[in-house]
Amino acid sequence: MKYNKKLGTVLIIDDTPDNVKILMESLKDDFKILAATDGEKGFPMALSDTHPPDIILLDILMPDIDGYEVCRQLKGNNITKDIPIIFVTAVSEVMDAAKGFKLGAVDYITKPFHPPMVKERIKTHLTLINQKKELARANATKDKLFSTIAHDMRNKFFTLLSNIELIEDYSNELDETHKANAIKSISYSTKQIYTLFENLFTWAQTQTKSMDILPLEINISKAVSQVFELYKDDARAKQVRLNASVNSKSKVFCDENMLLFILRNLVQNSIKFCCTDQEVTITEKKEETKHHIIVQDTGMGMTQEECNNIFNLGENLHKKGTKKEPGSGLGLLLVKEFTELNNGCLDIVSKENAGTKVVITLPAQAGQTILEKEL
Predict the structure, then answer these.
(1) CA 19, 103, 33 angle in degrees (round to 5)?
(2) Partner residues linked to 12 by β-bridges
(3) Which architecture characterizes domain 142-211 according to CATH?
(4) Which of 13, 93, 132, 179 is the most buried (most CB within 10 A)?
């Protein structure tokens, strides 16, 4: 949609110059205006690649081709069929406007014009069309997300079932090493499946606003220690070092479970994108009434494009770790949502092959709100 620093582009199709002049004068401050004196001239303007209209004001009574026929043609064209059309009509023609609704028009305005009402009706329909487009994009993204999750789940269950069948069918023939490896693979697959379901369930709760938030003063050092203890085996398996430099008395005011979720996901991601002999470090910095928690790794990092799209659900669903570890993309999205739900903000700085730094900024005490991102 072309906004040109205004609310949208309005195409007026009316054969009466005075009507066009009145409408242009009343709308010019808020909208980019295009005008045509008949349907024959207006139709090519509606098809424009450079400045397509966001909404069309269409007079009903015009010579040669009336408004109904213009509307029929616009709604019959794949390029223009979704552009909202508002009929311009005299009071005596209002009953005939019903015919326009059947053809696909969304509203009508009567002559003589009441400029504030015309402007508000245009704004309302532009808002509705934008909401419709946003909903369509959101649904498309969710479809892609669920498709990716279904694919990942199928692969995980295949690995899980294959190892279970291996033990069931060849338990007497497998030596202890092979059994141990199969059990380890079963455990790993089960944990991945659980994490995926947990993230999906948590994300669904945030979307339905059904998640309770209980902010308290939380010791950052203790939270970091809990998370490092949870992921020490994963880090050891990849020979990734976990480092922390956090003041033992530093605290943030937030929901404890959400803070632990944030740290778990960030540490897990950092380990996932690190190679052997690289490291993950957590530090913190107090600044007035807020606390910065910095999770930084020396791993594979991201390109600028990946960094720009990191919170666009559906963009980075297939990015795998250094050991081909899969990811759904939900975890980091939840990290951002949980941070904002606790009156905080998040910032990411990353460079390909040079690691990633994530800064979580949260209130240091009750009653504080972080409004700006910190670098």
Answers:
(1) 35
(2) 35, 57
(3) Orthogonal Bundle (1.10)
(4) 13
194 in Cβ contact with 328 (< 8 Å): no
Q: Measured on CA atoms in the order 59, 61, 63, 64, is the torsion positive or negative?
A: positive
**DSSP structure string for 191-255:** HHHHHHHHHHHHHHHHHTT-----EEEEEHHHHHHHHHHHHHHHHHHTT-EEEEE--TT-EEEEE
Instruction: Write down how long the chain is.
Output: 375
- Both tokens assigned to 309: 């799209």
Question: In the structure encoding, which two tokens stand for residue 355, read together?
Answer: 């690691």
DSSP symbols for 131-171: HHHHHHHHHHHHHHHHHHHHHHHHHHHHHHHHHHHHHHHHT
pLDDT per position as a tens digit, 99-130: 888 899 999 888 888 888 899 999 999 999 88
At the topology level of CATH, where does 214-375 sit?
A: Heat Shock Protein 90 (3.30.565)
* Assigned CATH topology for domain 9-113: Rossmann fold (3.40.50)
